[in-house]
Amino acid sequence: DAMVIQNPRYQVTQFGKPVTLSCSQTLNHNVMYWYQQKSSQAPKLLFHYYDKDFNNEADTPDNFQSRRPNTSFCFLDIRSPGLGDAAMYLCATSGGRGRSYEQYFGPGTRLTVT
Amino acid sequence: GENVEQHPSTLSVQEGDSAVIKCTYSDSASNYFPWYKQELGKGPQLIIDIRSNVGEKKDQRIAVTLNKTAKHFSLHITETQPEDSAVYFCAASPSFGNEKLTFGTGTRLTIIP
Known about the structure:
Structural class of chain B: mainly beta
Strand content of chain A: over 45%
Number of strands of chain A: 11
Helix content of chain B: under 10%
Helix content of chain A: under 10%
Number of strands of chain B: 11
Radius of gyration of chain A: 13 Å
Largest interface: A-B, 26 and 23 residues
Distance between the termini of chain B: 41 Å
Largest sheet of chain B: 6 strands, mixed
Structural class of chain A: mainly beta
Number of helices of chain A: 0
Oligomer: heterodimer
Order of helices and strands of chain B: EEEEEEEEEEE
Order of helices and strands of chain A: EEEEEEEEEEE
Largest sheet of chain A: 7 strands, mixed
């Protein structure tokens, strides 16, 4: 089945130790998104890629970076995690203009910072 | 930018009864309105969506209505079942969902057996 896959599902990192979360998709979608979701809150968009074009949200901290080496994969890099970065990180995809407009979410990676 | 308000924040409904969740939005350019269901520890799942050229859409026990004049849209779940218990998010997008969604704050729905 076509899907959005996130690895790992649970990640523990130490304060200040860089961490990378990964997302892959088999939907061949043009757009990939990264959201941060804290407990009992709505998902908050960090950035998205339309193909190779990177679109950063104005309030996304510089501590968060992203890479999309190809259509299928997208990575979220947190350069120096702080305790406030503990959250669920959600990857999503959508088809892009002229294609399906629904956003499909992966199962998320829960990040713990110790 | 867009602002989406969602009410209520929590809702308890007896099994078999109906549940209604309401959202309002601020940007008249928004024209795509999806609803997501999120179960504990999982990613949001799209359950139904509506575009601005449609006033109502139904899929089995779930329906969404849209009032563009008043800038509000609602989710209706009939004949509720225990598996409907989850957090529900509404969202709005100025394009047809190809770029950014603005989410509501979520409604925790509990179905009482």
